Amino acid sequence: MQLTLHLNIFVKTFRMRSILFLLLLSSTLSYSQVIDRYNFVQRPTETGVTIAWRTSSQSTGSIEWGTDAFNLNNTLTEAGATQKHYFDISGLTANTKYYYQTSTDGGFTSALDFFYTAKTDASTKMTFLHYGDCGYNNTIQNDIAALMIGDSTEFGIVTGDIDQGVGDNYDDVFFEPYANLVKNACQYTCIGNHDTYADNAATYLDDFYLPTNNPIQSERYYSFTWGNGKFICLDANIDYSIGSDQHNWMLEELQCNDRQWLFMFFHQPPWTNAWSADYYIPFTTYYLYQGNEDMRTDLVPYFEQYNVDFVLNGHSHCYQRGELNGVKYIISGGSGASALDFNTNSNSPNIDTEIYTNQYVRFNISGDTATYVAIDINDAVIDSVTTVKAFTPIRPEISLNNFTLESTNGNSYMWFLDGIQINGASSQTYTPTSNGTYEVATTNQYGCTFTSDPFEYNLLNIAEIDLNNLVLYPNPAANFVQIIGSCPNYYGGLELTMLDGIGKIIFSEKIEIENNLNHTIDLGRFSNGIYSLRIVSTSSMRTFKFMKQ
Fold it and tell me: Which end of the chain lies in a sparser environment, N or C, as judged by fewer CB atoms within 10 Å?
């Protein structure tokens, strides 16, 4: 046992010293020579995607795509020759399978590949992978890669240490072993500590095309949505303390979430019960390492406050999971690591299950139910957990009450007709005066704005009501007057206003009618005299005079 421990310490120390040696050289190294890299899918949205590939020599690239494998009827071509080819494709349809093929004028033509656009929040089913600490293109990594490819999931979450060396070679350790995975489905990556050693993640940032939806337009941290899930990626290697740019951005992302399932992913975990032998070596970086302690004050309380469902991490080369204050934590850091970590402590309050084997995690979301399974290198399910979560939609929904549109609750309201804001329409309800496509935007307590799905309103007769068909009786009247009339095919509102003999408004109301008008006004509270009743539609007005006696 003692010999094994000393050997582990020696191996770990040797590896750390090797990394330090490479770091000393990194200032004189430039990006490595670009080599051939096959197609890979990046940052798909509901309406767009990025397709990239690389060639060892400069050439001009083209891409063809379409929904019919036998009719790729869309084409883009680069303006000039390059080794780093990528195309941002827009104008796509959500949750749709597209076929594509790439080529260059240098003689390269890819196979016919495919990708899917992201699902809208109306889609309540999705499947995705969670894995990290990918390996060195070794047997373990390739065996697990084959299993993940066979799972045919919609995308992947890769929780850092994509390159477990020094972060300067993603072709050998990522794009080659996962070639049959990334050509069809985006693998959303985050930065691990090893990804920073060579050049502070400059190679990583050059190799991937990730979302940049943060104020500094960085790919280091970002968010994306897929179906009824929102995913927030952090970079745990730069400042995430309270008040930092990254923390402020994260806070807004949490406050403005409108999806049912909320995921955070980043490399280093807030807690871990596992590490390698340098846990026991004083004066080393990871001496007595039990997770990033500052996360427990700067991140974890916000996960709990804003109802994060899952926190996905890597870093520890094993599988750990558990729950704390409603937040579920999963560490999957063994998708290719040849040296597994081992239990070094049992102090983590959020971990109740530890399995020390190479593995990956597959999520299946179906409406209110989320299930994740851990699968080992032998394709055996080693753990399975199901969570059920009821959900009240956050985005406003429009309902129809008689002829009036009504929004679900919000802090404020803005109504739109055919994409144009309706002046003065700022109440929870709105009665349309014309047919068209209506939307409502609401805000929550943090000032975040959410917009409803379009609502087609076609109840109004475009040909306006003929008020000349209306009759008021009796006249003179005693206790009531009645307005009657035939209004063929008319569905809409009228405004009734009653004025006294000097023109002062003493009563008004709005009514909705359908085909016929038959409305009674009670006169019991009014004194005898001469009155006027003004009836106003959207385009005309008629006034009746009558006597109450």
Answer: N
Closest CA relative to residue 250, chosen from 259, 240, 260 = 240
Question: 26-41 burial, b if ≥16 CB within 10 A, otherwise e?
Answer: beeeeeeeeeebbbbb
Are the beta carbons of 451 and 440 closer than 8 angstroms? yes
* Pairing verdict, β 398-401 and 229-233: unpaired
Which residues are registered as beta bridge partners of 128?
A: 155, 363
- Written as six digits, the tokens of 450 are 């959410």
pLDDT digits (tens, 9 = 90+) for 313-351: 999 999 999 999 999 999 999 999 778 999 999 999 999
Q: What is the pTM of this model?
A: 0.81
Strands 37-42 and 82-89: unpaired
Determine the straight-line distance between the first and last CA of the chain, rounded to whole angstroms: 110
Cβ neighbours for 489, distance < 8 A, ≥ 6 positions apart: 461, 463, 515
Residue with tokens 């080599």: 35
Contact 137, 163 (CB under 8 A): no
Alpha carbon distance 365, 345 (integer Å):
33
Distance CA 453, CA 111 (A): 38
